């Protein structure tokens, strides 16, 4: 591809969202000043001077910040946008003050006087965009949030330099207006929408109906939230990505328009057609542009627009035809419905479809989609680029701009995991790819609030032209900032984690926890890991030795508990292997010993230590859902949605344990009963001389799983017990057994 074509495609995107008036500069500066006050408090905030000056980016057109002052004078933070200024502030706090901003809690002890910036420091990002979110994040992490939690997240986004993010709340309220206008009844609309915890897959056409209907007050609250989210994002100069029509429609459309041309797609996620097999409008049907433009007109009338829209027609669903002409027509129909309302529309497309079904998406099929939209008007998210990049096999998406994304996490699972070396090297490799059309970097996890070191690195890479030269040194500094003090053993622990759990490599790397702890028990569970478990246990020991010095740090207590949780996860695998071997060798006593430790000692100890931290409580998780409700019945409905997502995912365990978490209460009342039943059935099998029947066990254990989902038991939302004491108790019991091999 000629370089001039690449430049033209990227040039269009550089213009998107650029410019702005002096009024915009003042508004963005004021937004950053308010962030400083929220983050540091009014007193310390007075030591910072913030301004937004578009001229800083005059040469490159890319977000730029400039730092100066300090050392007795006010620290001056200037940015070409509000986001750039916030990123500059974060750089000063991180690199000059040793502070740390994180989901689990920030460490913001400022040295006095504030350190001086020795020479004026200017930094420009190498790319137009720093993107954030995955369509699934809306359901796995954001679904129950109130404005206070959204405000903290948008602050986190600004500080990490995010300037492009999904803003998809409230869209069902807009769809409801559209469907009513078209002639659907309220009951038909209610039947179509999924429940709140499953809206992401309703929005991508994978599901309908499951977990619904949406209560009336849900729509009102989401509209309110969306207005506040958009106002705050825009105040920083971020570009919110709004949803657009992808072609999926309720079955009831066929009643209103009997001649409409629709195709019913295949099932998804082991759901039957009661909940999947969505209806897709034919691209040539005249109803397609009517619905697409009506939705976007209603949406932008309500929320305004920043001209970038997301839509995914074939997410994890095979199109009805592999003919390039059909795929081009389906793509064109979506795009033309956008530009009919917004001539400046740019389509943000998740590239997951090309990665997820590579057998279907050959060169002709990929080319049909990418070529159906004018160059520069399609912005592709290379969603899983740290493990399975698509830009390489598509010649940089055949000239369409793309964002190199780190997906990292599936289902919002707990579990220490990362591919930090691949993440560190990946953006530079994509930037240097022949005729690269890379337009930015992105973080696209399905769920957040885990493995914060991975996101700290990825956010930093959005502002770096080169990889971090020494990850071991970087992770040591990360530990120092996170805990607010330099500690040799804490740094050593993190270096061990870097070379083990955070050192996954190759296409097999996936941030999806398949540990036996969180899987339905069977004799076929996989216990292999890509790292040496000794590194995890040694990191555990080192962190615990630092507790007398660091226990006052909330971030340290979180990490100590998280590493303990990981160590217990490793122990579960080892005791499971021991129990399985004993069963296969028909040795009842060793089976009872290993199974007894796993199900009656180790897992209860895990539940107890998790209960010592509010960030690992099922009660807190469910209380978030209940707090959204306006009645007891609605609260119960939301709680059941949440319980289903954490466990069965569908009515019969359709995507069983995909969104597994390790939370106090969930371990006690969901994972432990499964493991106790499994060990009992294995023991009975040996004692009675009858084979273990997995199919019968699955039927029986499903009753336990379903009982948890349907239960109305309430769980504590306040922590109980001392984390460090409880960790010591587990450590002193099991670490010596690991060392001497007597597990």
TrEMBL record:
Which Gene Ontology molecular function entries are recorded, alphabetically?
Answer: alpha-N-acetylglucosaminidase activity
As given in the record, the signal peptide range reads: 1-23
The Gene Ontology biological process terms listed for this entry are: carbohydrate derivative metabolic process; system development
EC number of the protein: 3.2.1.50
Q: Does the keyword Nuclease apply?
A: no
The Swiss-Prot or TrEMBL record describes its family as follows: Belongs to the glycosyl hydrolase 89 family.
Q: What is this protein called?
A: Alpha-N-acetylglucosaminidase
Lineage of this protein's species?
A: Eukaryota, Metazoa, Chordata, Craniata, Vertebrata
């Amino acid at each position: 591809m000629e370089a001039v074509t690449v430049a033209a495609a990227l040039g269009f995107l550089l213009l998107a969202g650029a410019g702005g008036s002096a009024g915009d500069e003042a508004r963005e500066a004021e937004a950053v000043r308010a962030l400083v006050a929220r983050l540091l408090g009014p007193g310390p905030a007075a030591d910072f001077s913030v301004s937004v000056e578009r001229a800083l980016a005059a040469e490159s057109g890319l977000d730029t910040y400039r730092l100066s002052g300090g050392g007795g004078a006010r620290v001056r933070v200037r940015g070409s946008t509000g986001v750039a200024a916030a990123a500059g502030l974060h750089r000063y706090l991180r690199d000059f003050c040793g502070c740390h901003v994180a989901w689990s809690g920030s460490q913001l002890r400022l040295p006095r006087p504030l350190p001086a910036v020795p020479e004026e420091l200017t930094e420009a990002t190498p790319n137009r965009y720093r993107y954030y979110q995955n369509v699934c994040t809306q359901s796995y992490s954001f679904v129950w949030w109130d404005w206070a939690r959204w405000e903290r997240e948008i602050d986190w986004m600004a500080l990490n330099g995010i300037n492009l993010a999904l803003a998809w709340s409230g869209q069902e309220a807009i769809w409801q207006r559209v469907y009513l206008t078209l002639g659907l009844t309220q009951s038909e609309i209610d039947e179509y929408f999924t429940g709140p915890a499953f809206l992401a897959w309703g929005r991508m056409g994978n599901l309908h109906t499951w977990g619904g209907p949406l209560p009336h007050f849900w729509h009102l609250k989401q509209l309110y939230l969306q207005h506040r989210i958009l106002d705050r994002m825009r105040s920083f100069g971020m570009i919110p990505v709004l949803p657009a029509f992808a072609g999926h429609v309720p079955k009831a459309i066929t009643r209103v328009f009997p001649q409409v041309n629709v195709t019913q797609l295949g099932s998804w996620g082991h759901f039957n057609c009661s909940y999947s097999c969505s209806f897709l409008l034919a691209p040539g049907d005249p109803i397609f542009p009517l619905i697409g433009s009506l939705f976007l007109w209603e949406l932008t009338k309500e929320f305004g627009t920043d001209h970038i829209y997301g839509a995914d027609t074939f997410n994890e669903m095979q199109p009805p035809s592999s003919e390039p002409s059909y795929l081009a027509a389906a793509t064109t129909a979506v795009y033309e419905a956008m530009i009919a309302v917004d001539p400046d529309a740019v389509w943000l497309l998740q590239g997951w479809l090309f990665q997820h079904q590579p057998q279907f998406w050959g060169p002709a099929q990929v080319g049909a989609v990418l070529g159906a939209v004018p160059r520069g008007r399609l912005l592709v998210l290379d969603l899983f680029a740290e493990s399975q990049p698509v830009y390489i096999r598509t010649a940089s998406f055949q000239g369409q701009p793309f964002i190199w994304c780190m997906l990292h996490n599936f289902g919002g699972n707990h579990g220490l995991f990362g591919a930090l070396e691949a993440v560190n090297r990946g953006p530079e490799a994509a930037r240097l790819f022949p005729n690269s059309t890379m337009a930015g970097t992105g973080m696209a996890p399905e769920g957040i609030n885990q493995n914060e070191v991975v996101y700290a690195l990825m956010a930093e890479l959005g502002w770096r032209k080169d990889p971090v030269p020494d990850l071991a040194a970087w992770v040591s500094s990360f530990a120092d900032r996170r805990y607010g003090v330099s500690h040799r053993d804490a740094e050593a622990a993190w270096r061990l984690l870097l070379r083990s759990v955070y050192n996954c490599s190759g296409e097999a790397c996936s941030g999806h926890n398949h540990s036996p702890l969180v899987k339905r028990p069977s004799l076929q569970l996989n216990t292999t890991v890509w790292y040496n478990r000794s590194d995890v246990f040694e990191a555990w020991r080192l962190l615990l030795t630092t507790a007398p010095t660091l226990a006052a740090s909330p971030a340290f207590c979180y990490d100590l508990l998280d590493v303990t949780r990981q160590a217990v996860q490793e122990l579960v695998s080892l005791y499971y292997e021991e129990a399985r071997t004993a069963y296969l060798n028909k040795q009842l006593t060793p089976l009872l010993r290993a199974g007894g430790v796993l199900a009656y000692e180790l897992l209860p100890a895990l539940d107890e230590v998790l209960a010592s931290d509010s960030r690992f409580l099922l009660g807190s998780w469910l209380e978030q859902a209940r707090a959204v409700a306006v009645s007891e019945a609605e609260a119960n409905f939301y709680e059941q949605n949440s319980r289903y997502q954490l466990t069965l995912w569908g009515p019969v365990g359709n995507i069983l344990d995909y969104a597994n978490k390790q939370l106090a209460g969930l371990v006690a009342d969901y994972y432990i009963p499964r493991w106790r039943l499994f060990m009992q059935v294995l023991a009975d099998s040996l004692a009675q001389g009858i084979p273990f029947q997995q199919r019968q066990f699955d039927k029986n254990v499903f009753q336990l799983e379903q009982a948890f989902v349907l239960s109305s038991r309430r769980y504590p939302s306040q922590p109980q017990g001392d984390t460090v004491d409880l960790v010591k108790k587990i450590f002193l019991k099991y670490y010596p057994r690991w060392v001497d091999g007597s597990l």
